[in-house]
Each structure stands twice: as structure tokens, then as C-alpha cells.
Amino acid sequence: MSPIRTAATMIGVAMAVARHPVVRAAVRAAPRLMTPQMRARAADATLEAAFRAGVAARKIVKRD
């Protein structure tokens, strides 16, 4: 599967998950249930995931 088709598939899956009622309810409830420590850990996990996604993208898409 080409990288473009893989990316398009991943975007489609992410959009479908984001529209799910249970996911939307959890996102709405999250700010009231999270402590400052949980927020910090979530921010760190998000940054780490973004970094790893960038590393993976650089491995998949070669520069000329």
C-alpha cells in the first residue's frame, strides 16, 4: 500500500473514531475528571506521540 493511501486510511479511521458518541462523551467529561498531574502526563504523551510520528514519517518519505 502506498504511503498516500495509508495516510488517507489513517485519517479516515481517526475521523470515524472522533465521531463516535462514546469518544465524544469522554472528551466532554475529561476536563472535569483530570487532575493537573494527569493533564501534564497527557501533554507529555501527546508531544511524544507527535515526535514519534514525525520520525516515522521521515523514515517513510525520503527526501530528494
Describe this structure in words.
The chain is mostly helical and 64 residues long. It has two domains: 33 residues; 30 residues. It is built from three helices and no strands. The longest helix has 25 residues.
Classify the secondary structure makeup into a structural class: mainly alpha
Rounded radius of gyration (Å): 16 Å
Extended strand count: 0
Helix content: over 70%
Domain count: 2
Topology order in helix (H) and strand (E) letters = HHH
Low-pLDDT stretches: none
Mean pLDDT over all positions? 84
Main beta sheet: none
Number of helices: 3
The outline comes out as flat
Alpha carbon gap, first and last residue: 21 Å
Into which percentage range does the β-strand content fall? under 5%
What descriptive keywords fit this protein?
single chain, mainly alpha, 2 domains, 86% helix
Summarize it.
With 64 residues, the chain is mostly helical. It has two domains: 1-33; 35-64. It is 86% helix and 0% strand.
